[in-house]
């Protein structure tokens, strides 16, 4: 049976408990050593002070120098009085030969001391922990000098080691209680930290968290849409490869958001979605604010590439325009045939012949036959004419229009011309000059196509009409037509620009589309006045 590993919270708590216990044990041991050393030094100095006071007693040095050891002598009685008063273990007075003149045990008087007297006899004061006839004790030894300063013996005072141990036990007991309390507080803190850690990680283990992160990354990277998350402080927290590919400015996860991203975050509503032009791509941007407990955690942006869908929409629009134009032409052709049939039925051959000549010289737009030879352009013009007619706007084809060749890039050309016509028709329909009109001129120059679109509207009131999102109407998806037209024209090395205003006209837009036509006869071109 495989043993289940300990959970992270348990491991963290046990590790902290072990660390706290080791630190507490080390601290207690160190405190014990320091306290013992301090107490021993304190008792050694106490013994030394007693020995000094004994050595300074008047007449003691002379009695040792001239008298003999006597258990009932004055030296013994004086030393015992001091010992009893100070609670010392012993007070020993010895001559220069080390013979005792006093001792706690009178039987040892007259015998040589049990410890080395060379230090005091050499004139030094000595403190030490030594074992003698009465056991282990803290000792202080001083030289015994006569009135002339000559050393005639030593005074040795000892304090029993049991007193040191008793004092140390009291202090260590207090230190032990403090250490136990500190250890308990540390263990309690470790347990609280373990519970908090478990709560913050939702009870998941590191391996589970790592697996969860890998799964989330795999899910985000597997979605076709780009995902970009920016926290409340403006730092990028998530940026998938798809999102990075759609943005024009490089991003660093954990770094500040770029100006491009900040522009996408301007709308602070909880959930918004709209089209944006990022570089050469049309992108659907969805913003979602993230909140928890009333606290703003940031914003999540979902970026979806709309370029391919936009290309399909433009292709469908071009196809639909051509289909509508062909349907309109077929309907018109049927009506004209009915009219011709009526003239012939009435026997009016002359008028029938004139009517036929008129039919062969005109197109559905009213342009001379052959002026616009490309079916895409012809169909788009016919379709936009029908749309404009429903809005009460007349579309006029310029007299200098001449496009004999075929389009090699019909989708891009329809994008530019279609957007320019849509804007012009809307401007003419809502302008102050009524009835509204739109004038369009197309001229081929070798493989280049020049486009001129003017309208009867009120002119351009926006500072930069080519900026993505710039529109006089506050509606989602507005303000991209001219930006798309400009982007498409520049993709072919051309341009779209706003022409100078002229009296009686609203906006005038001029576009150049290099290389969109099959080779044809070169013609010079100038915009109509």
Automatic annotation (TrEMBL):
It is a multi-pass membrane protein. It is found in: Cell membrane. It is an enzyme of class 2 (transferase). The keyword Nucleotide-binding applies. Pfam families: HATPase_c (PF02518), sCache_3_2 (PF17203), SPOB_a (PF14689). InterPro entries: HATPase_C_sf, HATPase_dom, His_kinase_dom, sCache_3, Sensor-like_sf, Sig_transdc_His_kin-like_C, Sig_transdc_His_kin_SpoOB, SPOB_a. Keywords: ATP-binding, Cell membrane, Kinase, Membrane, Nucleotide-binding, Phosphoprotein, Transferase, Transmembrane, Transmembrane helix, Two-component regulatory system. Residues 416-517 form the Histidine kinase domain. One of its GO terms (cellular component) is plasma membrane. Its EC number is 2.7.13.3. One of its GO terms (molecular function) is ATP binding. The chain crosses the membrane at residues 12-35, 170-195. It catalyses: ATP + protein L-histidine = ADP + protein N-phospho-L-histidine. This is histidine kinase. It comes from Longispora fulva.
């Amino acid at each position: 049976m495989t043993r289940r590993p300990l959970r992270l919270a348990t491991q963290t708590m046990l590790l902290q408990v072990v660390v706290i216990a080791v630190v507490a044990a080390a601290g207690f041991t160190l405190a014990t050593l320091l306290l013992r050393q301090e107490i021993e030094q304190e008792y050694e100095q106490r013994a030394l002070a007693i020995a000094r006071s004994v050595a300074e007693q008047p007449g003691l040095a002379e009695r040792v120098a001239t008298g003999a050891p006597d258990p009932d002598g004055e030296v013994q009685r004086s030393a015992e009085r001091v010992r009893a008063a100070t609670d010392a273990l012993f007070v020993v007075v010895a001559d220069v030969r080390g013979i005792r003149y006093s001792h706690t045990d009178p039987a040892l008087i007259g015998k040589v001391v049990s410890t080395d007297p060379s230090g005091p006899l050499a004139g030094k004061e000595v403190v030490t922990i030594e074992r003698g006839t009465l056991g282990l004790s803290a000792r202080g030894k001083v030289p015994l000098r006569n009135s002339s300063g000559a050393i005639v013996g030593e005074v040795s005072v000892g304090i029993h080691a049991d007193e040191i141990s008793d004092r140390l036990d009291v202090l260590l007991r207090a230190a032990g209680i403090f250490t136990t309390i500190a250890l308990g507080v540390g263990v309690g803190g470790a347990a609280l930290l373990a519970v908090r850690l478990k709560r913050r990680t939702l009870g998941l283990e590191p391996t589970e968290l790592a697996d969860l992160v890998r799964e989330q990354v795999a899910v985000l990277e597997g979605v076709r849409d780009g995902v970009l998350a920016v926290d409340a402080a403006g730092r990028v927290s998530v940026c998938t490869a798809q999102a990075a590919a759609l943005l024009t400015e490089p991003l660093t996860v954990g770094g500040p958001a770029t100006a491009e991203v900040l522009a996408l975050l301007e709308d602070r509503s909880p959930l918004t979605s709209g089209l944006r032009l990022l570089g050469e791509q049309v992108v659907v941007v969805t913003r979602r604010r993230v909140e928890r407990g009333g606290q703003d955690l940031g914003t999540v942006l979902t970026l979806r590439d709309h370029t391919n869908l936009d290309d399909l929409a433009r292709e469908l629009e071009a196809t639909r325009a051509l289909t509508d134009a062909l349907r309109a032409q077929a309907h018109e052709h049927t009506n004209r045939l009915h009219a011709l049939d009526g003239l012939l039925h009435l026997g009016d051959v002359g008028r029938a012949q004139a009517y036929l000549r008129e039919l062969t010289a005109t197109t559905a737009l009213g342009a001379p036959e052959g002026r616009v030879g490309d079916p895409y352009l012809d169909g788009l013009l016919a379709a936009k004419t029908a749309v404009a007619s429903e809005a009460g706007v007349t579309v006029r084809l310029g007299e200098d229009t001449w496009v004999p060749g075929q389009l090699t890039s019909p989708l891009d050309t329809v994008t530019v011309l279609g957007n320019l016509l849509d804007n012009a028709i809307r401007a003419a329909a809502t302008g102050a000059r009524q009835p509204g009109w739109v004038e369009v001129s197309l001229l081929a120059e070798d493989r280049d196509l020049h486009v001129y679109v003017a309208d009867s509207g009120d002119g351009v009131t926006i500072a930069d009409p080519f900026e993505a999102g710039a529109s006089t109407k506050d509606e989602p998806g507005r303000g991209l037509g001219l930006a798309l037209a400009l982007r498409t024209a520049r993709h072919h090395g051309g341009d779209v620009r706003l022409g100078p205003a002229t009296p009686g006209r609203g906006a005038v837009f001029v576009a150049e589309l290099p290389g969109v036509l099959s080779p044809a006869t070169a013609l010079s071109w100038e915009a109509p006045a």
